Amino acid sequence: MSKSIPIGVIGAGVMGEALIAALISYGVKPEMISISEKREDRADELCKRYGIVAAEIESNVATAQILLLVVKPQDMNDLLTRIKGSINPGSLIITFVAGKQISSIGDALGSANPIIRVMPNTAVLVGAGMSAISVGDGVSREQSDFVTSFLSATGKTLEVPEDLQDAVTATSGSGPAYFFRFIEAMVDGAQALGLSHEVATQLTVQTMIGAARLLESSGKSATTLRENVTSPNGTTAAALASFDGNQLSNLVANAMKAARDRSQELA
Fold first, then answer.
1. Which domains, from first to last, does the chain contain?
2. Which CA distances in Å does 217 have to 211, 212, 225?
3. ∠ Cα 182 183 186 (to 5°)
4. What is the pTM of this model?
5. Which of 33, 12, 15 is nearest to 119 (CA)?
6. Strand ranges (DSSP E) for 11-166?
């Protein structure tokens, strides 16, 4: 697809900004990107920062040939009701809204617009995100390639059947929060052992960064790396035995199921 066609972005929060930056990095001209954002000061901020333009929702969706929906799930139904009479019938719709199915979006709009559903995560903000896309009926290979290509500026992308999107949400979509919560728990544990908050935080964060880089670069599985650093009857073995005794795997699986179930409820 051409990089010189009108692109509309509805919702310009943190994720919306990351996607705007990705589009520009991919080569889309800033003046071709129009944002619709209910906070006028936020819209002005992004227009000055990126050289994009602001537009009312109705005019934005009427002219955009590619439309990114980046609103909160609870705002999606009102948005679709508002734009259904204005949307460009030939535009590609890319939705980044958790839990909202392609079929329900199409039904709400009452149109045959091609729709691609994307579940990103917050690491797209630093170019290390994980996004999963699902392609609806009528989407061309050129259109899906465009989405995959511009999202490459935010990290890695893969395609999954839409019926697995709720599982994706529970894994990579919500996954950063699981990681941050584990960091919090480790910092708390280190402080309970006598370390200061500052030292505990530095030790924990750098340990996680190093472990993630090792996992990514070594080509080895997490299981193999865990086994490599676990000496029989050693300190690591004692800690891992405590994890197993408290059923860590079940705890994580249950948490992910709760996230998956909530994603399904949002549909």
1. 7-162 (3.40.50.720), 175-265 (1.10.3730.10)
2. 10, 9, 12
3. 85
4. 0.89
5. 15
6. 33-36, 53-54, 66-69, 92-95, 115-119, 129-135, 155-159
Q: Across-strand partners of 118? A: 133
Question: What confidence tens digit (pLDDT) does each residue in 114-137 have?
Answer: 999 999 999 999 999 999 999 999
Beta strands in the chain (DSSP E): 7-10, 33-36, 53-54, 66-69, 92-95, 115-119, 129-135, 155-159
Quick check: helix, strand or coil at residue 239? helix
The number of residues in the chain equals 267
Amino acid 178: pLDDT: 97
Q: Work out the number of other CB atoms within 10 angstroms of the CB of residue 150.
A: 23
Contact 261, 174 (CB under 8 A): no
- Tokens of residue 256, six digits: 């992910």
